[in-house]
């Protein structure tokens, strides 16, 4: 099969797999399970990311730098409740600590 045929086929399959679930989204609005998932998933994903960060064997630098950066990130998020400010502050705190240690 020609590469010029495989690329459009792969693109169409990828587009279809991402678009098809959106066709039925109107039927899911207002369902209790969807409402519960939309409330719980962001926090659950953050817990998984933090746990992976702390357990990752490829992590560089001492553990306390990671813990301080996480604490700063959580504190700023609880204070401002702005995802952009939270992310920028967390990244900045870790970068500063990594540069100083």
Describe this structure as you would to a colleague:
The chain is mainly alpha-helical. The protein has five helices and no strands. The chain has helices spanning 3-23, 25-28, 32-55, 63-80, 83-100. It starts with a helix and ends with a helix. 2% of the residues are buried. The mean pLDDT is 87.
Mean pLDDT across every amino acid position: 87
Percent of residues in β-strands: under 5%
Helicity range = over 70%
Name the poorly predicted regions.
Answer: none
The helix tally amounts to 5
Termini gap: 54 Å
Order of SSEs: HHHHH
Number of strands: 0
User: In oligomeric terms, what are we looking at?
Assistant: single chain
Structural class comes to mainly alpha
Sum up the overall morphology in one term.
flat
Radius of gyration: 20 Å
Q: What does the largest sheet look like?
A: none
Summarize the structure.
This protein is mainly α. The protein has five helices and no strands.
């Amino acid at each position: 099969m020609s590469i010029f045929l495989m690329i459009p086929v792969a693109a169409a399959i990828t587009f279809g797999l991402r678009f098809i679930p959106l066709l039925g989204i109107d039927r899911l609005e207002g369902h209790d399970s969807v409402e519960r998932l939309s409330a719980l998933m962001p926090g659950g994903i953050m817990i998984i990311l933090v746990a992976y960060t702390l357990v990752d064997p490829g992590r560089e630098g001492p553990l306390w730098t990671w813990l301080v950066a996480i604490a700063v990130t959580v504190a700023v998020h609880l204070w401002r409740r702005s995802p952009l400010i939270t992310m920028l502050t967390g990244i900045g705190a870790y970068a500063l600590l990594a540069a100083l240690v």
